[in-house]
Amino acid sequence: MRIDTRDMVSVTELGRDLSRRINDASDGRTVVVLKNNQPAAALVSPAEMERLQVLDEREDDLRLLALAVVRMTTDTGTRVDLDDLATELGFDLDALDDHDD
Predict the structure, then answer these.
(1) With bands split at pLDDT 50, 70 and 90, how would you rate the model's confidence at 99?
(2) pTM above 0.70?
(3) Is the domain of 52 the same as that of 37?
(4) In terms of domains, do 40 and 50 share one?
(5) Is residue 28 domain-shared with residue 16, that is, in the same domain?
(6) How would you classify the pairing of strands 31-35 and 8-10?
(7) What is the pLDDT of residue 1?
(8) In a domain, 98, yes or no
(9) CA atoms within a 13 Å half-sphere pointing along the CA-CB vector of 59
(10) DSSP codes, 46-58
């Protein structure tokens, strides 16, 4: 996403011109707010905010799908009992249960 430099505004300027900048954002223009000459925030329309939220959800879904595909393709079918694993690692599960009380 490219931001027009005309859509960059300092915090001070934003305070003087808030109504116009909110109108710009509601019209679909992203307004980048600078603090100490660094991007600090952005004003976006509700539609853009919703679009970004949908993209975040899709990104999470794709990450989970990729993890599932990796697990499905690398699964050997071997399963290990928790008690056997604890014994192999030197843990006493009964002692761990007593510690939780």
Answers:
(1) low
(2) no
(3) no
(4) no
(5) yes
(6) parallel
(7) 59
(8) no
(9) 6
(10) HHHHHHHHHHHHH
By residue range, what is the domain housing residue 61?
46-76
Q: Residue 7: name the closest of 19, 17, 21 by CA.
A: 21
Phi, psi of 86 (to 5 degrees): -60, -45
Contact assessment for residue 8 and residue 15, using Cβ atoms and an 8 Å cutoff? no
pLDDT tens digit sequence for 60-91: 999 999 999 999 999 999 999 999 999 999 98
Q: How many CB atoms lie within 10 A of CB 43?
A: 19
The verdict on residue 83 lying in a domain is: no
d(CA 5, CA 18): 17
Q: Is residue 100 domain-resident?
A: no
Domain membership flag for residue 90: no
By the 8 A CB rule, do 23 and 45 touch? no
